[in-house]
Design goal:
The chain has 326 residues and is α/β, with parallel strands linked by helices. It is built from 13 helices and eight strands. Strands 1-2-4-3-5-6-7-8 form an eight-stranded mixed sheet, with helices on both faces.
Length: 326
Amino acid sequence: MKKFWNVTLITLCALLLLLLVGPFLVPVPSLTDTQSAQSLADPDSRFVEINGISVHYKLQGTGDPVFILLHGFGASTFSWREVIAPLSETGTVIAYDRPAFGLTERPLSWEGDNPYTQESNLSLLLALMDELGIQKAVLVGNSAGGTLATAFTLAYPERVLALIEVDAAVYQTIPDSSLLYWLLNTPQMDHIGPLIARRLGSDTGEDFLNGAWHDPSKITAEIEAGYKKPLLAEGWDEALWKFTQAARAPDFTEQLDQIAVPTLVISGDDDQIVPVENSRQLAEAIPGARLAVIGNCGHLPQEECPKVFLEKVFDFLDFVMEENDV
């Protein structure tokens, strides 16, 4: 029996040592084919410093209303390419990249608040509106961008003219787990984190798009390239890991009945990422919210079904303008 316990103790110690030291033995070579964000910019790209971060954005149109488009996880301003110009015919349209995505600066160290937290994203959006002289905006959020749009509406309702939730991941936030947060921020996980991020980043390519579209045959080589382009930006893997470590968003689903601005909830009927039932639940939870389900469409209706998407948005916009006597 004594021998058994000795062997067991030695085995447990060996496993503990492996867990503590093993990750540091995994090589994490630096990426060598990355470029600066400015070198990857499009002709219509703009950059502005907000809260010490160079934020990449695009702007079309003039006047009111002002639309602010918020992309989802693994996306960027590129995901709004089909609808920016049509929306700009009715007002001003702004789409920007959140930290860790697109061509916005990816700080790997900082003083003060972590730029990848939800709180910092709320602060950045507010500061961006102030910088661009926007008092009120129609927030249009897709997937995780819908979560941010909802949180902002709850925090700063006086700055929101209307809310458009597009397959919003409001009911799919990461649990606020202290154990998970601690694990993600251990030195061992921090060492191998960029490797995990590279795997996550690769999933934003073909596999992600195939799952996000009702009809993947519509996905062209140009669309695939547009999603992969931000993976050429310097430090994208380390920043994506920093974002993953900070993904600790509070659950505000019990506060949805406090939203008083006009709200439209849009969902593709074949969303494999945020089930349409979640969007129905969201529309029921927000007082007076309208629900529009687009047939034969997936998680990205603004890309896969832009014509019908715009019809739903413009119908809703007419209602908002009447309500505000504009």
